[in-house]
Amino acid sequence: xNKILGYIFSPLHYLLxxxxxxxxxxxxxxxxxxxxxxxxxxxxxxxxxxxxxxYYAMGSRISFKNPFQLPENRPIIFISNHQSMYDIPxxxxxxxxxxxxxxxxxxxxxxxxxxxxxxxYGGGANIDRKDSKQAVAEILRLSERMKVNxxxxxxxxxxxxxxxxxxxxxxxxxxATILKKVPHALIVPIAIKGSWKFVQYGxxxxxxxxxxxxxxxEPIEPPGKSIEDLVSIAEQAIKKAID
Length: 243
Known about the structure:
Layout: H1 2-53, E1 61-65, E2 76-80, H2 88-94, E3 100-105, H3 115-121, E4 125-127, H4 132-149, E5 152-155, H5 173-181, E6 186-193, H6 195-198, E7 211-216, H7 227-242
Parallel strand pairs: 1-7, 2-5, 2-6, 3-4, 3-5
Antiparallel strand pairs: 6-7
């Protein structure tokens, strides 16, 4: 039934999703030109709220749980599992006060309305996976912006999306690079559940009526812990939450 209803409602979802991206491309441009970073960020936040609303066109049930008072005057490294592209809008919207930036593939900076513009000018890191020197340099530049502006970063240490919801081993590379530059950053794990089911049949049809959740887990203070220990603690916390 999820698949059958997906054939019916997926076109509506994609129509709304695409319309929002097209409308907000010039909105982002104007916001950046007239109001700088702050105005641009507000336009991106609003866009992602509207993108999130299109999930409901697919009958999705969405929850975001955060029982912690996260600091807004300190850089945070959010460590999360990754199940689909639909992980992103809720993270941008619900973590907006922490100015969460992403490490993305450089290929995404071209050809996608709104998304490519935000990746170019939003302050994140756009890395070339075939060029390790460029990737490290980009992450270091992001780290510097985090340090100066008290921004945060969202990292998906699995490297690629999980197609079946099962957690893949975490890599420490990007996290280690940021922590070298911003050693006082707070580590905050986030467990994502169910978004892989949304795309279990591929990009079409999307699966109707899926339940998806984002849960902020207990923050981890870096002092006294090795990078390996920090990543392991976050990985085990996420694994426990999604299992």
